[in-house]
């Protein structure tokens, strides 16, 4: 169980995350939705301590994550794999090497920089690539792959870290709908097969509804809704985001979503996938 209590992040005059409390059972797939600036990224970044909280606590399986420093903090970060919108791969390196870099916590930085990986590293990386249907691309330069393939390489790289939690910060925001579906399906498959907790930030309600066990809707740093996808009705979304304030992705999701049909992901920000 991941327990977040009164988690707050203040940047100058701005409270980006404002007293968020959540209890996330192991193995749950949670979609965090909200408009740009709602505090979704800051929340995720605090969970893996890329951003230090101003107040509040994060407890994972009874361990106070907010108190970690030094080696323990590095190990926590390694066990909390992060997927970013922009893939974070070394484009000029081949796919297999990119994935093996994910073994850094096990291999060590020096060996990783020298690209001196063990047979175990290589075997784990190939196994992960196989799960993501990317073995044929293993020796291809990462930069030559499509955006969707690159994001699946990033997921394979995260998998070889042996994470306890997978954090994905708008993993499909740069992808076309077909690639977005494959990436979300891959995350869901890993969540179900490995029992891995997944926290995924999404701009669109349809996607969260289609793939997540639970939806957290944020606005201005606060949790406005936390529950099962089917209980987040259109009326509830309108209450949260306000009828006079319905522009952008959440608005489109409200107007385009059937509440009974698990719609395929509707991507809103297609750029150079
Ligand atoms: N390092 C920072 N310094 C100052 N302000 C920040 C910093 N990081 C985030 N913010 C601000 O905190 C607020 C929340 O940002 P955050 O990125 O968490 O929102 P978000 O919901 O993830 O938005 P997006 O969907 O656009 O990524 C925004 O107003 C943002 O400008």
From TrEMBL:
Keywords, comma-separated and alphabetical: ATP-binding, Cell membrane, Membrane, Nucleotide-binding, Translocase, Transport
Residue ranges of every copy of the ABC transporter domain listed in the record: 2-245
One annotated GO molecular function: ATP binding
Any Pfam family: ABC_tran
Signal peptide residue numbers: none
Family matches, as PROSITE patterns: ABC_TRANSPORTER_1, ABC_TRANSPORTER_2
InterPro entries, A to Z: AAA+_ATPase, ABC_transporter-like_ATP-bd, ABC_transporter-like_CS, ABC_transpr_PhnC, MetN_ABC_transporter-like, P-loop_NTPase
Thylakoid listed as a keyword: no
Sequence similarity: Belongs to the ABC transporter superfamily.
Record's protein name: Phosphonate ABC transporter ATP-binding protein
Gene: phnC
């Amino acid at each position: 169980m991941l327990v977040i209590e009164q988690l707050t992040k203040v940047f100058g005059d701005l409270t980006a995350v404002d007293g968020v409390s959540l209890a996330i059972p192991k193995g749950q797939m949670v979609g965090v939705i909200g408009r740009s600036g709602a505090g979704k990224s800051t929340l995720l970044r605090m969970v893996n301590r890329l951003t230090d909280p101003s107040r509040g606590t994060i407890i994972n399986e009874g361990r106070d994550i907010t108190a970690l420093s030094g080696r323990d903090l590095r190990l926590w970060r390694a066990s909390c794999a992060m997927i970013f919108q922009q893939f974070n791969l070394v484009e000029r390196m081949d796919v297999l090497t990119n994935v093996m870099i994910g073994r850094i916590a096990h291999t060590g930085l020096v060996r990783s920089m020298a690209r001196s990986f063990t047979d175990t590293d290589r075997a784990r990386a190939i196994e992960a690539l196989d799960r993501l249907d990317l073995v044929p691309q293993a020796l291809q330069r990462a930069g030559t792959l499509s955006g969707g393939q690159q994001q699946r390489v990033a997921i394979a790289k995260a998998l070889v870290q042996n994470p306890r939690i997978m954090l994905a910060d708008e993993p499909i925001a740069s992808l076309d709908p077909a690639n977005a579906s494959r990436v979300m399906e891959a995350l869901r498959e890993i969540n179900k097969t490995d029992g891995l907790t997944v926290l995924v930030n999404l701009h669109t309600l349809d996607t969260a509804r289609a793939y997540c066990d639970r939806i957290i809707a944020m606005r201005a740093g606060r949790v406005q809704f936390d529950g099962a996808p089917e209980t987040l009705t259109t009326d509830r979304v309108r209450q949260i985001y306000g009828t006079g304030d319905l522009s952008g992705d959440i608005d489109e999701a409200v107007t385009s979503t059937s509440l009974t049909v698990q719609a395929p992901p509707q991507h809103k920000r297609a750029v150079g996938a």
